[in-house]
UniProtKB/TrEMBL annotation:
Organism of derivation: Amycolatopsis albispora
Domain ABC transmembrane type-1, residue spans: 55-237
One Gene Ontology CC term in the entry: plasma membrane
Keywords from the UniProt entry: Cell membrane, Membrane, Transmembrane, Transmembrane helix, Transport
Membrane topology according to the record: Multi-pass membrane protein
TM ranges: 55-80, 92-115, 121-141, 218-234
InterPro entries: MetI-like, MetI-like_sf
Entry keyword annotation includes Ribosomal protein: no
Family per record: Belongs to the binding-protein-dependent transport system permease family.
Protein name: Nitrate ABC transporter permease
Phylogenetic lineage: Bacteria, Bacillati, Actinomycetota, Actinomycetes, Pseudonocardiales
Keyword Transport attached: yes
Amino acid sequence: MPRLLRNLIGLAGFFLLWEGAVQTGLVRREFIPPPSVVLSSLAELLGDVSFLRDVIATMLAWLIALGIAVVVAIPAGLLLGSIPPLQVATRAIVEFLRPIPPVALIPLVILIVGGGPEAKITLAVYASVWPILFNTVYAMAEIDPVLTETAKSFGTSKSRMLTSVALPHAAPFVFTGIRMSAAIALIVIVSTEFVAGASRGIGNFVLEASEGGGRRDLVLAGTVVAGIIGYLINEGLERTGRRLFAWSEVRTEVVK
């Protein structure tokens, strides 16, 4: 059975359980509307220009944040992985910064860069840099010494070693880091839009829908859209990774 079909069957089963729990009174409709209502609201939202602008704002911020994280983390990971003393010297500051939740930095980031889209992009970059950085450093440490010694025996220069030996070896690990960071960046952007009250975005839409009378069907519809986007991003990157790195045994592994 194709993987996509199995995923859809699992999703349909979840919606059936949800619908049954509400219809039988196990879950109160006032708190959680049934999926039949939520999906109907979602269909209406897909024709709402204002909501589509919110989705575009979130996706644009996600794309910019992930791009910046890739540009920053890969060279930094290659540098730290190539120079062990530098990696040791920076370990304390990295381990100090990495566990700090991005949401805890919202007041500081708003103070520094303002409350516009820059805030959610900055926080998403901060959160998504680490998986790419650590996967790159890990990949550099896992290079087979036989490969490097063989290259050295042929007089290969350091720059050639980097492009012909290190980067091809590290690529599957780095791509896995990018796939992890893609999900993290989306979570942080939507969370920041919700907590900090951005002018546009899915998080802002959910926040406005939950205020006043509380249109819970719209709140859940916005949440479902965020989940669908996250699923499509991960599925797309996973398929791309399998196609690009079919030769690698680590293409689906996650380095923690």
